[in-house]
Amino acid sequence: MSDQPATHPISPRSHTARPSFTNFLRLAVGVLGVGTSGPLLASGSMPVAMVAMWRNLIGALVTLPFAWRSFARVRTTLAPALLYRALRSSAFSGVLLGLHFLGYFSAMRLTSVAAGTALAATQPIFAALWARITGHHIPFRSWLGMVAALSGVVIISNVDAHLSWRTFEGDLAALGSGAAAAAYVVISSKVRESLDTSLHTFTCYISCALTSFFIAIGLNQLNFFSFENPVKEWLILGGLVLGAQILGHTMLNKVVEHESPTIVSMVVLFEVPVASILAAIFHVGNRPQGALIPGILVLLVGSAFVVTRD
């Protein structure tokens, strides 16, 4: 995607403006949806690539009728070259979403839900850095926020490294998922200038499902239907599709049509307390160490400062 800045003009949308009330409500629903993801993943045992594949395949099938109508409509209003360029970008965002899922799902199994979601919440930092690279202004307060958030990352990683290599691997996976999620949101915001939510969502989800399928092959996770506790695993998968996939990512895709990807990434920070509270209520996942709390708070406060009002 090295030619992205040349083929897509810089969006006039502010990277620090407050979302509209309607989009704020959509973001709230989206955050509640994605917040269910961590606890559900931590309570299951289905291989992570399989979870991502089934979740996105089912999500794609749900959106297919709406996407088909959208495709029939947009092909009459958009030049073929622009349409297929947008579809290619949408498919590429699905690859990035697949990498995000692989990292995030792995983190939920390796470290605590609180630490994993907090480290994945570095997404706005990566989104802000990409915005700066592509020519947008990032306020000085945001740079200070990045430094503070990085300090939080160091604190969390240092605590987990002393616990075990397994938890530290979970931290690295969560950080990688944050970077992939930021790239996914940035590209999605460009795609949404040409495609509506349903067509972009379907293309992205089916591409993500294919990416997860090939990752599963590479990891030799080829057991597609039979699991240790099949009823439990399929119920968890259904919860992921309804909550994180349909209400979560689809709603965020709708918002990113009108709002800055940095804003969307910042609001998604609230996934951390939602996921942590749910994990504590249902007693799922590794219990976070008390020493992690200061690092999580520093990371969240710093990340929140990455995006400030104009």
From TrEMBL:
Gene Ontology cellular component annotations, sorted alphabetically: membrane
Spans traversing the lipid bilayer: 21-42, 48-68, 89-107, 113-131, 143-165, 171-187, 199-222, 234-252, 264-285, 291-308
Q: Which residues form a coiled coil?
A: none
User: Does the keyword Transmembrane belong to this entry?
Assistant: yes
* Keyword terms, alphabetized: Membrane, Transmembrane, Transmembrane helix
Pfam families membership: EamA
| Keyword hit for Transmembrane helix | yes
Q: Where is the EamA domain?
A: 33-157, 170-307
Q: Which SUPFAM superfamilies match?
A: Multidrug resistance efflux transporter EmrE
Q: What is this protein called?
A: Unannotated protein
What organism is this sequence from? freshwater metagenome
Q: What is the lineage of its organism?
A: unclassified sequences, metagenomes, ecological metagenomes
